Each structure stands twice: as structure tokens, then as C-alpha cells.
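hey can u run this one w/ pyridoxal-5'-phosphate bound, need the C-alpha cells asap thx
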Amino acid sequence: MSDLRTLPSVDEALRTPTGQSLIARHGQAATRRAIRTELDALRLRLRGGEPGPARVDAGLFVAEAAGAALAGAERSGARRVFNLTGTVLHTNLGRALYAEAAVEAATTAMRHPLSLEYDLDAGRRGQRDEPAQRLVAEITGAEDACVVNNNASAVLLVLAALAQGRETIVSRGELIEIGGSFRMPDVMASAGTRLREVGTTNRTHPRDYRAAIGPETALILKVHTSNYRVMGFTTEVAGAELAAIARNAGLPLVDDLGSGVLVDLSRWGVARERTVQEALADGADLVTFSGDKLLGGPQAGFIAGRRDLVRACAAHPLKRALRLDKVRLAALEATLRLYRHTERLAETLPTIRTFARTVAELRALAEDLRPSLAAALGAEVAVVDTEAQVGSGALPLETFESVALRAPAPGGRAERLASALRRLPIPVIGRIERDAVVLDLRCLDDAEAFRAQLLELTTIFPEVDLS
Ligand SMILES: *Cc1c(COP(=O)(O)O)cnc(C)c1O
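ok here u go:
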């Protein structure tokens, strides 16, 4: 079919059995578009002197190519994956998993009408965020709280409501950038507050803050350096001392904590991180933190602390633009309620359950899965000790023990193996270490589903042969 005039028409391709089944699956418009795209590509190739398909089933050929393109497009987008990266709260893989109670609350909120802004006792309009805010106040001991879309929103709202048109003092050692898009100086500019930097990258002293305070100062901001540490010759002003400086000057101290740690996590093997309660006890007037980092809930942001300041934030026009939808609000309430039983968190909250898994348990799981992976790859697979990390800009330098399956892929084949794993029905995301793919099992949430699809590695991806 080197002759362009013998190319099938769009309708011919649509009429083939493959074309018909594509319409049933993807709809008329998308199928037609995909076939037209394939025909355009084929026309280009023929003009370039490449051979085309045999004339007898050209329509079918084009329909099948369109089907492959449509299937490929369907694979992109947000799909379930196995997170075997060894990073528990992986921002690219969706951070915290919902607790079962949160999943139930969210699905109910999706399927049924909800007393979202309705007071069931009084039978009239109620306050949308009130139950979640009451729970935050109850758990943290804060006077009041406000919930918004995420922690970036929380910081933006606090600065807009309390410091617009005036100065915000921040240490030079705390001007963070998170994930490229959250840069503290830019957030400040968006909120309309002027950044007053104090100290140096490695050392900021109480006198630096005191000297910067003037008639234009609206507040002092302390920012948790979530994704890096300044080490060596360093000084920072601790929360309690900074609170005293702010109080003496009659200014609010806002502490952006990043991760919302509501309980001491060290009993589950995670290094200690300052809790929301501790920051408030140190004298912060407001704290801000995320819902989907160490707190283990849906994406959300919190502002907690002094009632007059929280109310000023909640009354700002931006609050409406940053509010949570009903599904996340329902999930958030359910998650926060779990914190009433901190002793049960390792059962009820997936993030904490993941931290709480013992090395012995992970090693047994690894030994159990090893023969299946080895058989699928036709290669030796080893059980190795590794280091997992929290992720999401929490405890950047801390690692904790974990166990992984290590599949050697010598001769530059590690990329190919990793790619094949990503093309499984439930894509497996591991990490490449030298000439091997390492699959950290700490976050493996469904070992049987993982095992069940391994054999497809040999059938759909025979190129993976590593022998
Ligand atoms: C993560 C983080 C943020 C941003 O929080 P999101 O919930 O991702 O918007 C802001 N500040 C600090 C210190 C953080 O660690």
C-alpha cells in the first residue's frame, strides 16, 4: 500500500470489528479522532517512502493502531500504583493514604446528601467547617482553628489576613522552597506582605529579630526547614525564645510547621519531630500545618491558635477561595476523630501502620515474595536490608530500617526492568541502584495483588529476560 490513494477512509476503519469495539469502549468522537491521527501519521510515513500495511486489511490495521493509542492514553493520568520506593509519604505518589474510616466518610459524602452546612439540632443553617475545627482545637489544645485547601493556602491566608501591606520578619535560614512551586518569598509577595529577612543562612540571633522590629512590622514568621538541614556552625532562635521576643513587641508569632505531627511518633520508630501541641506550648500565636503529611489525612491545611487571629483569617475573603470540598472535609473529620484513640493509631491510620511494621515482619514478607519475583524474571532475587524515609519534606535526613527485594539487572538493563514494572496492570514503582532494581516493601499494601500480576512480566514483557 505504498499508494496514498489506497489508504482506508476514516469510516472504513470505523466499520471494522475493531473499530466498532473501540467505539463501544471509548465513544464515537474519541475513536474517530484517534483513527484520523493514525491515518495522518501513516500518510506521512508513506510520503517518506516507508512501506504501508497490506491493502486487504488496511482498515483493520489503522483501527488497531488507533486502539493501541487510545489504550495508552487511558493508562496515563492518576492510577493506582504500588509505592515500593521506600519513601512513605511520596508527594508524586499521593502522600498519605486515607484511613478506612476516612474512606467510608468520603464515599458517603459522595453518594448522599450531607449535613454539611446544616445544624441538625436546630434544623437550620450551620457552620461548614465547625466539626473539623472543633476536633483540631480539642486534639491540639488550640483556642480555635481554621481548615483550608492545603498548608500553602494556610500560610498564604495567614499572611494576607494579618500582614498585608506591612512587613513579615523571617530568618534567612528559613526561606524555604518546597517542590519547586512553594517558595516562601513568592508566597509572601502573593499575600502582599513585605519580606524582612534577618540573620544569615546559618546563624540568626535573638538580636537580629529585635533589631528588625519597627512600626511596619506585622508579624514574625518561623518556618520549619522541612526538606533540608543547615548543619555545622549554626544558630537558630528556638520557638519559646522567639515567642518571648514577639510578645514583648506586641506582635504575633506564626510557626509554619509543615508536617502536622499530633502525637509523638518515636514510639513507632520515627525520629522525634516537634508536635503542634509543643509549638503552641512554646508560645506560638498561630501554627500552620498539612493534612496529608505525617498527620495521615486528606490534603488540607490548618491554622490553629489564638482565637482573635484565627477568626481574622477565617473572615478574610480568600478563605472562601481556599475552602475544602465536602468529600475531603468528611474524610478529614473522620481522620481527626481517630486521634482520640492515639493508642490505636497503628491499626487505624495507614501512615502510622506503615511506620510500625517491624523489620522481622518485612523480612518474612520479602522471603515469601522472593521466589515469585525470581520465577517471573528468571533471575536471582535477593532479600536486602535498606533504609526507608518519611518523605514529603518531613525529617529529611532521618531514615529508618526497611527490607527490599533486589533484582539484579546487569549491563544497563535496570532502566528496562524498572520500565517493565511500571507497565504492569498495577504499575510498580521501585528505585534503581547501580545495576539493580530495588523494591522496598515497607509500603506494600497488598502483597497478593502484587504477586498475582508478577507472572505478566514474562508474558507481556518477554524483553525483560535477564538470564
Ligand atoms: C509541606 C510544607 C508546606 C506546604 O504544605 P502543602 O500542604 O503541601 O501545601 C509549607 N510549609 C512547610 C514548612 C512545609 O513543610
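Residues 150-152, 155, 176, 178, 182, 223-224, 226, 256, 258, 290, 301, 393 surround pyridoxal-5'-phosphate (CB under 6 Å). anyway lmk if its weird
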